[in-house]
Structure of Signal recognition particle receptor FtsY:
Amino acid sequence: MVLNFIKSGYEKVKEALSKTSSFLGGRLKTLFGRGLDEDTLEEIERVLYEADLGVQTVQELVNSLGEYYKKNPGAKEEDYFNLIRKTLISIFQNDNSSLKEAESGPTVLLVVGVNGSGKTTLIAKLAQHLKNQNKNILIGAGDTFRAAAVDQLSHWAEKIGCDIVKASPFSDPAAVAFDSIDAAIARKKDLVFIDTAGRLQNKTHLMQELEKIEKTIRKKIPEAPHETLLVIDANTGQNGVEQAKLFLKYVKVSGLVLTKLDGSSKGGVVVSIRRNLNIPVKFIGVGEGVDDLKPFEPEEFIDSLLAK
């Protein structure tokens, strides 16, 4: 079983990526108009790097463009754009935004990522979407390290109209996860979200904590968590890749969420992170509103990225 999300128009995504596309699409259009000599290819390479597409992808694109030009010296601007578009879309082959749903009992969604990446807001937005689909939801406020995170989730839970399980500051997060799932089972909830801390200044403690939370969840529901979503702030650029690799050493991530794309000129980092981690992108955040969390649709995302 899967949880599906309504796919809405991508105008908001295009608007959110306008900082990247005005640089990337606009510059490429100008450079392709010159014809692809060696100097132009070097400039194209620089533009692609600055868009944060990542080393592997940039090298593949530059090599492909050079080879294509040799075989098709009369190629036009749109031919080059189509080549880039096809290459980028292939990186997301078979990705979809569906979330796995438990066959019986509550579906457990574990949310991880560094503090400030947007975990708490993601939970609120997803909970609202799923509440609109008549799902009964419970939220576990497992980031006991930050009182602000618990307060924020409490506010959202009240606003959305869903239950929340929380504890006093610095309580054991695994205990919160245990109590949350216990409550979800007793109250016959459809879904339970588990928030987590993300303080990288003490990596060992954080990661041991995440491992403990996972083990605790499995004690209650052996096949859970059904989804583990890693939230990454798009503004961090390539640092987001390194953050993600750290989390992957300790938790089994099933999907990526890239937030704050509306404030970033580094929209290409979505491509880099997807390629480096080989984990599907589930959602992207393109604004502050509840409706600004969008299921990830590769073709429309790449078209927005390359808009001229």
In short: Residues 203-220 form the longest helix (18 residues).
